[in-house]
Hints:
CATH 4.10.640.10; 0% strand; mainly alpha; 90 residues
Amino acid sequence: MATQNQSEIRYLTPPSIDIKKKKFCRFRKNRIRYIDYKDPEFLKRFVNEQGKILPRRITGTSLKYQRKVSQAVKRCRHLALMPFVTDLLK
């Protein structure tokens, strides 16, 4: 009877299979040329909970737009639209 229970293995959830999504630059895909530094809600997508700018390998943005994003975040911080450091930003 013990061997019969061992052969019947049931999962509550199906086993997860990691599928890597291809990263893409959302600025090139949506043809965005200008990143507005006066829009802190948009720039919060590129900042983590502590207020640090997320790297390219995580966000998937290209080098050209990563530079523009970082410059826009810094300008937004300078105008006090976004905090420099915080505990819970999102």
